[in-house]
Amino acid sequence: MKLLINGIWHSSHPDSAQLQTERNRVRTQFFRNWITADASSGYKAEPDRYHLYVSYACPYAHRAILIRKLKKLENIISMSVLSPDWGSPQGWTFASWTDATTDDVNGHDYLYQVYQQAKPDFTGKVTVPVLWDKQKGTIVNYESAEILRMLNCEFNTFGDATIDFYPKDLREEIDQLNDFIGDRISDGVYHAGFASSQEAYDSAVERLFNALNTLEQSLEHKPYLTGDRLTEADLRLFTTLVRFDAVYYTALHCNLQRLADYPNLWNYTRRIYHLPGVAETVKFDHIKRHYFDTYEGIINRRIIPKGPQIDFEL
Questions:
Q1: How far is the C-alpha of 280 from the C-alpha of 273, rounded, in Å?
Q2: In this predicted model, what pLDDT tens digit does every residue of 34-75 receive, in sequence order?
Q3: Is 162 buried (19+), middle (13-18) or exposed (0-12) by CB count in 10 A?
Q4: What are the pLDDT digits (tens) for 113-145?
Q5: Three-class SS state of 130
Q6: Which of 84, 163, 190, 228 is the S-S candidate for 286 at Cβ 3.0 to 4.6 Å?
Q7: 3-153: which CATH number, 3.30.70.100, 3.40.30.10, 1.10.472.10, 3.30.160.60?
Q8: Are 238 and 272 in contact (CB under 8 A)?
Q9: CB–CB of 209/256 below 8 Å?
Q10: Which positions are annotated as active-site residues?
């Protein structure tokens, strides 16, 4: 496991119940601040104050990249892109890949150094996205769902205020969809790919594909999850589905069926992909490099994958 423990970087460290407890404590208590338009939180929404650290490979970081693009905040919030080669001993690394960048805000070589700068005794995994405050010199937030909400609603003075991905009349439905998508699909592909036993894998795959079957039926007579409006729930689902056939089907053994085998889900994903600006945020070279580099030797190769289902009958 790659992580920081009391501010010291470890490229390979065994996990433990005690370490998991500490990581969970830190995750809930630190870097969970909120940017607000009225500055009531102490973090005011304003141009050129905030910076995103992201990876095109990561579906959770992709959410932040996507909403920054769709809300037209590219000139308001700057962005650094990490290399997809997370498999190196240093974890997330700047530059050294097409469309990756240097850290032109803090001048670091590795993302863990950003965490060290914000909290010298940080314990936990070093993840993307990271929302950085240039003024205070610290991490504001590193939870993709919360960053998604902030960029949607708190920067309307500077971005496109006509678009609302979390409208009041749909919030209850969106929250329910987010819970379902997050647990069953976004995290579900990793429950399958990182299963430590055949039994755990079989259960995870069944749960994942049952969820996909549910959404396939739901999308039969509507373009988006809540109807005619593209919402936050669609953005969260899209970043997983767009990766499905390219990497999850193979690298994570989620190969019972391809996304392309689901007519409604396939058309839905393609519909979002072709919306203005969306395709620019999808970098398949980063995605493939990350999953076929990062997870070598981690996934249990002795687990027998469920698919593909092949019919040789005439």
A1: 9
A2: 999 999 999 999 999 999 999 999 999 999 999 999 999 999
A3: exposed
A4: 999 999 999 999 999 999 999 999 999 999 999
A5: strand
A6: 84
A7: 3.40.30.10
A8: yes
A9: yes
A10: 58, 190
